[in-house]
Records
---
Amino acid sequence: MTDYYTRMGDGRRVTMTRQQVLDDIQAGSADAADMGGIPQLNANEIEHMCDIIIDQSRVVGVEPGNEVVMTYDIGQLDFTGDNGNSGNGVDMGRLEAALLHERALGADTFELAHSDYSIKPVKPVISMEMQTMEEIQAEIIAPYFYGAMPNMGLYYAPDGPYGNPADLMREFKIEESMASSEAAAEHLARDIEFVTTRLQAAGSDGFNFDTTGSAGDADFVGTLNGVKKLRELCPETYINVGAAGESVMGIHGMMEFEGEVAAGLYPHQQAQLIAKAGANVFGAVCNTNTSRSLAWNLGRSVTFIKKAVEDSPIPVHVDMGMGVGGIPMFETPPLDAVARCNKAMVEIAKVDGV
Amino acid sequence: MGDPLGMDIPHLVASGMGGIRTAGDMVARMMYTKNMRLNDAKEYVAKKLGVTTMDLGDECIMRDLREELKIGSVTGIPGAPRGILAKMNIENILDIKINSCEKFREKLRR
């Protein structure tokens, strides 16, 4: 029985037989299907994914003509950030970083980012961000967004004015916990309006909302209310809304957007609300389980994302960074694993972009 | 996503259009301007450029075409339009408005 090199979800290199890879894809797909109430991958798709995974070329890719569009998060921080962002730690100006992505790294789109990459800390430096946006827009050609995480955790104690829902729940103050989430979500929506409309006035092509829902369903709903307002005020804006996970965490549990409860929504359901809020592109996510194989994670991820692509009213750019989209959760992800996950997402899930 | 060598480069090599190296920037613009899905956006851009959808990701086609159309290139071509100028040409070719160009026009004294 031939052994093939492949990876675990934490990036470790392991060997597996073809049958083991097939079994893990099947099990990962079944897990997604069971959680999301969606179809599993069919036999042909599982075979195709297996062939991609056991291909022993170092890097694999799609056939010419089947290329897709790339969008990015964290902007220039991949060059300038520390290892918390898998950044290179190379200090440089944001103009230079943007143009290097456009002209040296083949970026179809790119974005400006604050070093904390969250909506809230942008407010006190909004004039500086507007000035930098104007300067870079004068030189760049590719669509250039402003990117930030809604990151509603920053609105809770000790960082923000509202009580921490998890702490309040531990004290059995359930109603206070829910009220705190609701107040923070309203504050987040106001801040989104403040930040994004000013950047649009500075010539931004649009806004990338990264890891929406990272603080749970109230974060998800607060962001969509901000997106809706941005669309009303700036109809020309390009809006990208990327999710934080394959399921919206129900920390509040009853928050609604346009009459739909957000908690527990899976990517194919998240797409509907995100489109309704006024986004142009949905960044669908499935997180990686580090204890499982790449085959299991990719089978699970592609199952979720394929259904989202089929059901979404807007284009879907799957999130494929470290620890999402089947890619191992590792600071410097192995090139062989990244390329295999990419090819499978394009060829089987039929994504519009990455 | 950080680590440009572990992320940007393998994604680009595996399936990336290549941005202004080819026509990826324009396909992306149609996705965001009109909510077009990938194949619709490619067909729209290809028709406007007078090429096939296969040509959109081909450097050998797009390098010279971009210079001829004055819509920017990844190499430094002295005198060739970049930034707002190149985007104004893209607006005309794709029949769209680009926010930074609109803001630029608003600031011009006439």
---
Amino acid sequence: MTSMDILAIAPHLTLTVSILIVMLVVGFWRNHRLTMVLTVLGFVATFIALFPALDASPRAVTPLIQLDSFAAFFNAMFLIIAAVTALISHRYLEGRAGQLEEYYILLAIATLGAMTLASAQHFAAFLLGLEIMSISLYTLIAYPEEGHPPLEAALKYLVLSGVGSTTLLLGMGLIYNATGSLAFAEIFQSNVVGQQSDAWFVAGQALLIVGVAFKLSLIPFHMWTPDVYQGAPAPVTGYLATVSKASVFAILLRFAVQTETLNQDVIFTLVAATAVLSMVFGNVLALLQDSVKRILAYSSIAHMGYLLIGLLAVSALDDSAMALETCLVFLAGYLAMTVTAFAVVTQISSATSDRDTEQVADFAGLFWRRPVLAAGMTIALLSLAGIPLTAGFIAKFYLFAAGVEGALWSLIWAMIIGSAIAIYYYLKIVFAMTSRESEHEYPPVSMLGAATTVVLGVTIIFLGTYPTPLIDAVQRIVEGFG
Amino acid sequence: MTAVSVPIEHVLILACVLFAIGLTGVLVRRNVIFLLMSLEIMMNACGLAFIAGGARWAEADGQIMYMLVLSLAAAEVAVGLGLVLQLQRRFDHLDIDAASELAG
């Protein structure tokens, strides 16, 4: 390993070292605030390490991982979200019986797994990254000892995520049998050299896509999502909806671009079918929910369906650069608005109560009692609905353009219908917040949390009104990718 | 000595059958311990597919992936059993449906 290799992989190393430091400090001196600050500092240091690493990229460190600006883009977003999650978790966990410090260690380990996924170009790294993240998440979901929903959510997630992982693994095994290779780029070579007709090879790819669909909770593989989102502690739900989804999508994108798996009709149809189902039924089922967390769960299912339009455009368009640009812009917008919504839910909930503040009725009067939080939530919801001047509008606009360019008409129609339905249930929450009467007791406001919400809300508006910097950055990333 | 070679398809079919058995177990069983066991069967089916691949291409890659699958299974079961203990302590049974409070 040369010094350039070490420089390229510096972010991963920094985060690993910071995890070890936090672990040692917790071993000697338990202090909730100190652990939180150290973890956030670790994320900040890792973020800073991304810049020298970018100078050394693109570079393959061992055949397993490819460090390029694509990975750096995702890593930057994961680190920001992880830091936000740690900041808002402090007030949320405070007062809970038992030990709180391991929560932050697990959060950092899950982020390390996500960063590995974003740079993996080999099945072994894919498996390692995915499981480092998933197994940390099982524990994070079950973390609050009181209350019954977290335990049930963790068990459900463990079993169904396990089914997803094994499906993915069987797919990998079949692909390996057919091609003799575990690296994405080499699979591509056999994908071209007349292997397409091999039934085992196609079955392997289909199983791999199904496994990924479990992780992205696309309909019909979404059964776990609403229950897990509702039962998990609010900051963990936010993390689950953002980092865990985006990292799996990052590797799916890399896999699809490097192996051109979507050029096979069977795989293309499979992905298109799950996309349409997710967009339509995700939004329809969200109408029936009374819990904000469940509404956001179905909304994330629908958004993953929208995102697949970008993925399909990669193979439908001659110029895959535009499709890649679409995916990255959409993801940036999706992550910003989803993390904001869950940050607000976190701040009006507490780990000491039986369940989080999550019923739509509990949000009544939030505008009058917690104006800053309610404003942040409103911006996030309007952005999720795709109202102009927000990040969500730019994201959907991009998808629409890519879909039209690629002539994916049925998908475009599903997106339009889905978005129209979605406005109803997002506005339902906004109207609840403006109502005058309110009964629910909210925990005290923390300045840190309020400040985080303001920054996130401003980011959504900024991305929606002046997206040029983001688009420029994404275009540079796409040029160096492939 | 003549080596009797098993056709690779047979091994893959066996892996898929094992996988299907495990999946059926996950779908029909309600006891958490049995759910974890079914998951374990599914993981071993994947391991078998990798070993078959390793033998077919005469490479170590398949075996290495099998080791990773094994450690994954161990980690998953460790967390799973931790949750099982919590469930047992709180409800005195291991039925996942009876522990269901979240509206499906």
